[in-house]
């Protein structure tokens, strides 16, 4: 299969209609490749031949053979013994294909990988070969998996009549597949996709727009389908399906009309279709189903905070239909509307969801106060636990099963808010705790003692809690977001100073809705938990603004705060100009002379403004250079992390460098703080900074997190490379043992084969002896190299004393035949040559050494 002098180029993909997966699975070309593998007497040998030849393939050949292997993986029966090895080979070929300069995805490879991805999703338990294959499949294939298969190339498309040539022959494996498998795989994709709350709300917006844009001719059938889906979801207790049904129903609802009105807003007569829809009471049925979903016993659990958050967008749409403004009295009277009872119930439900329960109006749960206090204490204890990125990565793995819910969306919302919690934990204005890098973990970075808002309880980070002015009280203060009126939190932490207490809230606000500010539901004063604003020194000023306790970064060269320095600010320059105008008069009389100082005063006044402007320009240039240098350091750091190891030595070196990266990042954090401080100083002078300057500033803020994410990715990549090096080491050890067997066989021939005792074959025997001697030397070097790599990879050292034993066994034969060959070479010169050319001392020494060597050999053989 691999051999062949001519290789056809991959067919280009024409603008053809999308082909279903069945057309790919039944294509003669793919079926022919699978049948050839099934007919081959040794399929394993075929796979080994593919793997050995992969290094020498050109791009076109590599793509072609990857299509062959992908067809085997996608179409071979599940019980085929070589299927896992085919998956391992395909992962290897894809890694070869994804090297720099080999990233063109051909139509055939795209289509076959589509089938492979569908099959991978159907398997419930994946062996290591399949897991490696899933990681090697390009992202584009996974992104396009929810769509149809890519179009078949026109040169390869066939009609159904040509499928008879590749039907399964008797005694061979069946290659038939069913479309239900593809539907099941697509359902798995939809269930396991990772989305944030923002992503779900975007989907809800698209669904609302689509429902609102449906034409009148299609609206009747769509309403019937939505009602049926809602009833099925309530019967099955599927919270996700009920939530989607609420969005669809709200999108199909029409605005309420006044009772007795039979015309549209433009006073035009209603069409026959509209009158028929009105008589059928489809809108009434939609409102009835919506009330069942929101208020019915089989509907959604509106007491759940997660469900209320997921219903925020459809309820906002419903409020706009009802005309609810900021005040609840802005809506029209319910008695003037048609179907007043339904609209009144929907209005009450929308208002209830718009105003979440605060601490002062907490619903009763039926739990005794002692048990409720204990449960709250347990929740706080769980909240104070560090956020573990290992478990987060596992929960966000696309291969996991979807969360099954019944009547409540909290579990799903907890899963969706993981990224938002992570964003709240890692603050750009505060230094992130140094991640602990541990070799051998799936995701070795862990964040410790960060700010937490888990389960609606706010806890500041460890630095803020360590301040003397920050205290924990026994009172729970309810917090609400000013932007979305949601994101309810409770805070027990206060900032106490000068006999006053203010409630601490997250400085960056509600991250889910875009950073809305938190305020107290009871009207209590609140303060953000920014460390610099809460750290007061013994002199009763903020530590950063104290001349004695601060680091001096906020002070200029005149020992003044930068924001109040008259030299650097425009206000100071204007004040200096006024002072010059006041102190220097326009005309001065000196005796009989009159000196006009008008121009001098103007020049002096202008110099103050020019000096301030030049100083600010100098600060801007220094700020830009420092920011560029810091970003350049991060870019070089990321470039080092992107290199791939080629040997085990490079692997260990890269691992040590990667594990030392957090320390380098922490060192760069100090430089980032200096750059950001300089940026804030320039901004305080009201200097107009450009878009690129602002972009550079936020690049600096995001650089540490990006570097730590790259560290985690690099450690996972090094684990995969380490596994590959271990496999290569095993293969080399197997080849080395075969090499030793060949050496022992040759030594055995020298000792037992009579043909190797004949002096007449001296040249042949001498060449064999030289070859064995050279191979024994090479074997010793290889043994030391293999032991060295075993130590680097953390493996037990293999005992290669067999090499020394072979060398000791071979030594007498080597001495014997080397001495004999030397004698035969020099004998003719000594016996027949000129006596004057013979060096007597050298001859005597060589003959004596030969006699001694032969004596040792004879003693060994005896």
From TrEMBL:
InterPro entries: DHC. One of its GO terms (biological process) is microtubule-based movement. Residues 155-182, 358-378 are annotated as: Disordered. GO terms for molecular function: dynein intermediate chain binding; dynein light intermediate chain binding. Residues 156-171 have a biased composition (Polar residues). It comes from the Eukaryota. One of its GO terms (cellular component) is dynein complex. This is Uncharacterized protein. It comes from Polarella glacialis (Dinoflagellate).
């Amino acid at each position: 299969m691999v051999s062949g002098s001519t290789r056809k180029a991959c067919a280009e993909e024409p603008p053809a209609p999308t082909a279903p997966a069945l057309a790919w699975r039944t294509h003669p070309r793919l079926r022919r490749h699978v049948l050839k593998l099934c007919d081959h007497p040794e399929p394993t040998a075929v796979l080994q031949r593919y793997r050995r030849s992969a290094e020498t393939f050109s791009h076109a050949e590599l793509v072609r053979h990857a299509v062959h292997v992908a067809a085997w993986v996608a179409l071979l029966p599940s019980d085929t013994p070589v299927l896992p090895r085919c998956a391992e080979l395909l992962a290897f070929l894809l890694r070869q294909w994804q090297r720099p300069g080999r990233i063109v995805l051909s139509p055939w490879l795209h289509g076959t990988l589509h089938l492979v991805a569908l099959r991978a999703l159907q398997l419930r338990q994946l062996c290591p070969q399949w897991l490696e294959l899933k990681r090697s499949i390009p992202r584009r294939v996974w992104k396009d998996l929810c769509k149809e298969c890519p179009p078949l190339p026109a040169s390869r498309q066939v009609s159904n009549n040509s499928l008879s040539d590749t039907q399964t022959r008797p005694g061979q494996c069946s290659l038939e597949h069913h479309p239900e498998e593809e539907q099941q795989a697509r359902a798995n994709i939809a269930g396991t996709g990772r989305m944030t709350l923002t992503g779900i709300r975007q989907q809800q917006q698209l669904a609302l727009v689509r429902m609102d844009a449906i034409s009148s001719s299609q609206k009747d059938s769509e309403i019937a389908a939505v009602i049926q889906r809602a009833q099925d979801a309530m019967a099955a207790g599927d919270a996700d399906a009920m939530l989607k049904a609420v969005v669809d129903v709200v999108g199909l609802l029409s605005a309420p009309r006044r009772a007795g009105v039979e015309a549209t807003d433009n006073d035009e007569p209603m069409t026959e279709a509209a009158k028929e829809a009105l008589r059928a009471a489809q809108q009434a049925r939609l409102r009835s189903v919506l009330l069942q979903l929101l208020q019915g016993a089989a509907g959604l659990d509106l007491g759940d905070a997660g469900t209320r958050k997921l219903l925020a967008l459809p309820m906002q749409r419903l409020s706009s239909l009802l005309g609810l403004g900021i005040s609840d009295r802005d809506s029209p009277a319910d008695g003037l509307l048609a179907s007043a009872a339904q609209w009144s119930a929907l209005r009450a439900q929308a208002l209830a969801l718009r105003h979440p329960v605060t601490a002062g109006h907490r619903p009763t749960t039926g739990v005794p106060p002692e048990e409720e206090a204990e449960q709250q204490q347990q929740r706080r204890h769980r909240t104070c636990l560090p956020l573990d990125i290992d478990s987060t990565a596992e929960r966000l793995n696309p291969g996991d099963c979807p969360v099954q819910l019944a009547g409540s969306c909290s579990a799903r919302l907890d899963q969706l808010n993981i990224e938002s919690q992570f964003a709240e934990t890692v603050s750009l204005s505060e230094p992130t705790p140094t991640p602990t890098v541990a070799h051998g973990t799936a995701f070795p970075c862990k964040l410790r003692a960060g700010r937490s808002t888990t389960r609606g309880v706010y806890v500041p980070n460890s630095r803020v809690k360590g301040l003397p002015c920050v205290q924990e009280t026994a009172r729970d203060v309810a917090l609400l977001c000013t932007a979305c009126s949601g994101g309810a939190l409770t805070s027990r932490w206060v900032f106490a100073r000068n006999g006053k207490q203010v409630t601490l809230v997250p400085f960056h606000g509600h991250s889910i809705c875009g950073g809305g500010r938190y305020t107290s539901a009871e009207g209590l004063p609140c303060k953000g938990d920014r460390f610099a604003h809460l750290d007061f020194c013994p002199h009763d000023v903020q530590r950063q603004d104290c001349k004695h306790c601060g680091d001096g970064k906020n002070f200029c060269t005149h020992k003044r705060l930068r924001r109040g320095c008259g030299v650097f600010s425009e206000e100071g320059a204007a004040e200096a100009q006024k002072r010059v105008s006041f102190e220097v008069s326009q005309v001065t009389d000196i005796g009989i002379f009159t000196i006009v100082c008008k121009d001098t005063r103007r020049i002096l006044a202008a110099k103050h403004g020019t000096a301030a402007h030049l100083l600010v320009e100098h600060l801007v240039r220094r700020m830009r250079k420092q920011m560029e240098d810091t970003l350049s350091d991060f870019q070089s750091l990321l470039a080092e992390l992107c290199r791939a190891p080629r040997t085990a030595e490079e692997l260990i070196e890269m691992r040590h460098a990667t594990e030392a990266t957090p320390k380098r990042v922490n060192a760069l954090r100090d430089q980032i703080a200096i750059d950001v401080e300089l940026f804030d100083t320039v901004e305080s002078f009201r200097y107009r900074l450009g878009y690129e300057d602002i972009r550079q500033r936020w690049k600096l803020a995001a650089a540490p997190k990006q570097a730590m994410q790259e560290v985690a990715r690099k450690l996972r990549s090094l684990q995969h490379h380490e596994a590959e090096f271990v496999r290569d080491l095993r293969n080399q050890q197997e080849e080395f043992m075969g090499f030793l067997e060949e050496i022992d066989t040759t030594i055995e021939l020298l000792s037992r084969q009579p043909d190797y005792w004949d002096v007449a074959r001296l040249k042949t025997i001498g060449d064999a002896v030289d070859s064995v001697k050279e191979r024994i030397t090479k074997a010793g070097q290889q043994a030391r190299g293999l032991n060295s790599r075993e130590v680097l990879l953390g493996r037990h050292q293999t005992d290669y004393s067999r090499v020394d034993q072979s060398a000791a066994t071979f030594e007498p034969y080597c001495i014997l035949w080397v001495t004999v060959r030397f004698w035969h070479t020099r004998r003719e010169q000594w016996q027949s040559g000129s006596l004057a050319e013979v060096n007597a001392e050298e001859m005597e020494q060589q003959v004596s050494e030969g006699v001694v060597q032969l004596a040792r050999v004879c003693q060994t053989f005896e």
